[in-house]
UniProtKB/TrEMBL annotation, chain B:
It comes from Virgibacillus indicus. It is found in: Membrane. Residues 31-203 form the Spore germination protein N-terminal domain. Keywords: Germination, Lipoprotein, Membrane, Palmitate, Signal. Belongs to the GerABKC lipoprotein family. This is Uncharacterized protein.
Amino acid sequence: MMNEMGKETEGFTSKIKLRKSKKSQKKAVKSLQSPQEQELLSQSLEDNENKFRSIYKDCSDVVIRSFYIGGKDNAILIYIEGLSNTQEVDDSVLSPLMESSGEGNDQVKSLINKKIPVTSVKEVKTVAECISEISSGNPVIVADNQKTGLAVGLAQYEKRSIDEPQAETVVRGPREGFVEALSVNNSMLRRRIRSPKLKLKSMKAGKYTETKIVIAYLEGVADPTLIEEITNRVSKIDVDGIMDSGVLEEFIEDDPYSPFPQFLETERPDVVTANLLEGRAAILVDGSPFSIIAPITIYSLLQASEDYYSRFLIGTAIRWLRYVFLLVSLLLPSLYVAILTFHQEMIPTTLMITVAAAREQIPFPALVEVLMMEIAFEALREAGIRLPKQVGSAVSIVGALIIGEAAVSAGIVSAPMVIVVAITGVASFTIPRYSASITFRMLRFPMIFLAGTLGLLGVMLGIILIIVHLASLRSFGVPYLSPMAPMKFNEIKDVLVRAPWWKMNTRPHFTGEYNKSRQADNQRPQPSNGGDE
Amino acid sequence: MRCIIRKKTVKRMAEFLMCVIMPLILSGCWDRIEVNDLAIVVATGLDKTEEGEIELSVQIVNPKSMGSKSEGGQGGGKQNTVEKTTGKTIFDARSKLQEKVSRKLFWGHNHIIFIGKKLAEEGIRKHLDFFSRHPFTRLRASVFMTNEKPDELLKIEPDLERSSAEVAKDLAMLKVGLSVTAKDLLDMLSGEKRGAALPMIQIEREPPNTEGLKIYGAAIFNNGKMTDQLDDKEVRGLLWIRDEIDTASVTINPEEGEELISFHIFDATSKLIPSIENGNWKIKIEIVSEDDIVENETKLDMMNPKIIEKLKEQLEKQIVERVKLALEIVQKEMKVDVLGFEEAFHRHYPDEWRKANWEEVFPEIEVEVVSEVKIRRPGRSTAPQGVPENEVIGN
Amino acid sequence: MIEKGRISTGQMVILLYPTVIATAILLVPGITGKFAGNDMWLSPIWASLAGCITILIMAQLHNRFPRQTIIQYSEEIIGKIPGKLIGFIILFFFFHSNGLVLREYGEFVVGNFLPTTPLVVVIGSMIFVSGLAVRGGIEVMARSAQVFVPIVLFLFILIVILLIPDLEPANLLPFFEKGLIPSLKGAIVPTTWFLQLFAITFILPVLKKKEGGMKWGMITVFLIMVTLVLSNLFTMLLFGKLTPTFTYPIMEAARYISIADFIQHLESIVMAIWVSGTFIKISVFYYVIAVGTAQLLNLQDYRPIVFPIGGLLAVMGLWTAPNLQQIQHFLITTMPFYAVIVQIILPLLLLIAAVIFKKNTKKIN
């Protein structure tokens, strides 16, 4: 803990240095700190106390407690209510200090060693350091006639217990997900990768929030230039605050105008672990249970963690199912419009007659009908997320069953259309990442328009536009469509199929180039089957 | 500075949207047509009037009649509508037809073309062009000849199927008689092949008060004009030669008695092997077929190899006879090559073929028919059923 | 160098293949069928020789000027003004060809699928889409090609497989009815398509590895030849003597597919997927024009001139010929000479000049 804290401040100061060199743009950060915060702690306790009192004016949650060390030396203890373990502060800090026999003017060092039975105790020299420790929940002791204070690592605050991730459920596989507390998330990663090669590089962003950001990577596996690039991009951020990894994402992605996610967001430590092992880096943000992983390709967005835990044949089949339904969710409504209003000869005659009969009474053109239904569906989906859980189910029942049924029987929409919209909706939910599925869902609206104007040609032009965009997209230097384009034959083992684990001997092309070999060759199980006796 | 850039990009994006999206929406949808506005043509009839004009009749599906049940009672009415006009060309007639039909005539689902007798006799070649040029017609449409008025056929309301078009389509698919698509017909009429054959179709009114269609025989075209007709039996022979037999049944009378044995032919192929020796044009028709026994009225034991051998010989003879019957009529009497002989000679003897006058050569070609039958399985029973064991022959 | 991207030799093949195939597969069976009759499947084999010659000349020139395109080294070989003139002729040729390709594409789509849609919309939308790809650079085009070409190939193989029940092998006979002459005659027009591999001069300088450019160029020729032979063969086996009577025999074949009475009339899907191949072709030509113009005018970047060139291309596409008949006539009569002069004779003269004057690039970077 101590080690980590030290690193944090180190990172923070180096960031300031960097920013100073980065010209006028970064002035804002400096001006936020009042001049008194820059100062060193003074010799006189009274000065210090006054300083802290003025800094923490009107902060009702900050407690400044005066006491005597060994009954004679004046001292104050500063902490924030609810961020520190007060029980522990009483038992291991206040009581030993107050009850100490008082062997003269102990220096801080000896105080730490002799009196405070807490693992992580640290000297602080400046007011700014004190503030940062206090904000993290570590009580700070400042004593009279001492140039340095003591930060005691007794931070403890309320956090959500580890839960099953809501957005990424699996049938088979670990069920724990990240929580909002960064230290817990770090510990979950550390539990999975015990090697000291797992680096959790700490940074801060946000003028007011001073949000902790951890860049996790495996030393020797991840390309150092990648880590350097991520560090650079993160350190350039100068904003009021980072509320979630989603905010961070927008500041460090490659193409800010693209509708496609350029990070893989996940709540699952096992997914992060797997990606770290493939040479990628994960960014964890304090206060957000979603970590983001970079660099990624479009295929990473379509892989669920369960693919790797179930049998590889099943995993491959499921993967293909997902690819097919990805296309369905993007294209089905536009294909329906294109074929129904432009290429009627393509539909088999009997089906054509059935559809014609169903549409006979419908007052709207097919294009309008599709748009209406798709927008209604999106509204239902959005309402389902926003509404309280108890109401949500009611909405889905009313929406899906009653509105659909009523619309068909009233002759406002045709039954085939309802089927198309329903399949499209279901299809989009097979994409394991929410950010990817919502992208494809939204892209289908322009596609419907194109289909309504130019038929299948329009659909194709739309597809070409999307592909050209995807081909020009890069996530931290990795082409978004690789390994299909540019083609890497031996990488396809994890795209077109889910190769058995004992076949995946090399890391993926772009991220794993730094350290190619992943495991020993020839690990296929070769059981020796004896006779039947 | 960043602010300026952002403003610029926003402005750019707005311009982009204006330029790209707006024309698409504003100019609307040139070729878009709703299904509600289509008149789906499923069958076309062509004939000639006494005045020499093309008579075009179409069968249009009436989707209203098939409304789903939930709409309750809105359906009804006839399932198909037949419309008819005349015009100078097919497309001219179509344009006139459009004046009568409130929806856009759509040929994309036209599976059937009925050709009337008068048109057939005056030549069909020039009228088929429409079906290979118009963007929405199908080359796979089946073509039939009829002696009746094509629009009468279209008006039929069959018992099993929804429309006469569907009956004709299914009959063509079953390959009970000749089955000719528009592409096949174009192929037969084009190039050096002068002869063509089309299946004949007629209205079937048996039993009374029902309506249906029936394929009966074939029409023979010479130079695009109908010249002769073949009856059903002769057509079967023709199919054998043209290698178009799909499944067939052959019945023989093995013991000169009342009892018969029926065979189901499930695989038959025929080959034309041309040869020219000393100026003698010869062709050998090799027919190989595989048969199952499906019905046995006799008391013969179907498991006896000797009996099977005998049956095989009789079967082969039967097939050869069928083929000879068709040959006699087509080659000697009609003198129209619908058999594919010319193509065979052209392919194997291009030089001789070019020098010869095919119309003179064709009737003189010496034809040898060789049939090979393989009796594969006796069916589910071995010995004849319902016959006491001691009466079974060859047991 | 204007282009900063680098592509692999495999990407070069996948970029050049549709550059030739896209329109060839539509028009070549009909045109060769007219001249070669039964032996039309042989014609692409003769025609592919022209492709080999082009690749050979371009590779030789490339060896002398490894990081330059023909626009640049023609100036070095024969001096500034004549060099620029040659560059202009070549660019104009590409400009004209791309106009023709756009028009062929437009005519095909409008004539078969969208009869009342204005040609300018069909051509314009394609130019817009390709313009975006060209702005993305050679890497983006190559990656897009890697996505689309497998789909186009899959489609081609699918058509072939679905048509197998309808094929008639006897349509091939008799072989060489009138000797080899008809098949050679039929080879003249496809030659112009093989000559389009000339565009390789703009791709060779941006290859990651310098070696192997020629080898893979030849492989491209071979692949194209095989594809054209197959497409000619299959249309012949399906339609026999009807083949030359159709404008687009392959499309007619797709139209003829019917499996189980349910999968039928696939031509619209075929058209849509074919459009993706055409997109690559138009983009490659477009790219050549944009980069070439930038080099001719000594510009720093070609991106700003992409869309202005696109506007000119649209006009070229619309004005190049009054109708499809004129285009076909042009392709059969004028184009072979035109293409041979610009794409073989000009570079050959340059090569000879370079050999005589012993010109090489000054420094290899």
